[in-house]
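worker-3 :: picked ROK family transcriptional regulator
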Amino acid sequence: MRTGDLKLIQELNRSIILNTIRKHGPISRSEIAKMNKISPTTVATAVQEMIKEGFVDELGAGASSGGRKPIMVSFAPNNFYLISVSISNSIIEAAHVNLEAKILSRKSLAVKQLYGEEVIQAAIGLIDQLNEEYMELNKCIGISVAVPGIVDHKEGIVRYNSKLQLQNIAIRDILAERYGVKVWVENDMNAIVLAEKQIGNRHYSDMIYVTVGDGVGAGIIINDAVLRGKKGGASEFGHTSVDRSGIRCECGNYGCLENYISWPAVYGRIVTSISRRRHTILAPAGGPPPQLTPEMFHEAVQQGDTLAVDITEEIAGYLGPGLVNLINLFNPEAIILGGELILEDSMLLERVRSYVAKHALTLNSGPLQIVTSSLGKDAKLVGAASVLLQDFFRFSLSSQQVK
Ligand SMILES: [Zn+2]
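worker-3 :: tokens ->
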């Protein structure tokens, strides 16, 4: 056997062993060997190495079915950390995150009229603030950035984002040079769909994450791999056309879905309706309240406000057909819905589910699950973390392990 092959096998075994400890720990060495059909000596050597490096802890003796009690080992998530950065069109966040993608501390900044390089400088400002509080950069395994738009994840370059005016910005190189650590850059929706699978334990080989919030987007996993397209521009669900003579979109096209169901679109519709003197509890005195949030909108839906209910029906009327298109194109096992406009709105969820049940090809919609995101409001930060963790530990996305 060539040395290269041997090294590859060692690395594969190492990642299988670490993955087993992470998923099933506390676990004994002999259990790991049995579970993966790897020799006990190989397991013992690898585990010893990982204990020395600080990725695995040795615990006390576990339960025994007779004879000597085995020593248990478990994954050690807190000896190292990573920095997650989430850039969205309205807020930039940076966080210290442990190796189980748990957020330890965070800094954030509202994006107000920041464009191009200024956005990256703002992110650097947040990372600097985090580092001032926690200076042990030698324990940082890297920085991972989730950003909306078309991202070249191999080169770590944001190719295009119209709202933030990002064009060919080499985020990876900028951050790597400044902080001297490895840097990952990924499209935010791809990051979240990865996190749903890894952290949210959604064990589907074919799944689609759809968000409706500030914007509308999707992340698609087919055959356990993220679907990117040739240049990283796949899954632009928000820019699929729903009306060829509709509203002009920033992307240059007309009638893109995003302009009908995103929060800015919904907000615009509420304000217009109020100015036309339509009665709603969102504006008890006639004018719009100073700060209207998605939460206030959901509250109005729950209270049966006719304007809020009408708008929800309208959103469902666009989103339902959009999902049917996705389902008929990709035949996923699950659609996971996230974003502040969907997460708290049971009426919208119910409408969309029943639309899909009626209109998608029966063969495709049969065993399909339509569920809400398990990652909550921190989905993007957790998403960025899981991109890094998957690569750093070479955790397989597939439920089938390499033997
Ligand atoms: Zn568009």
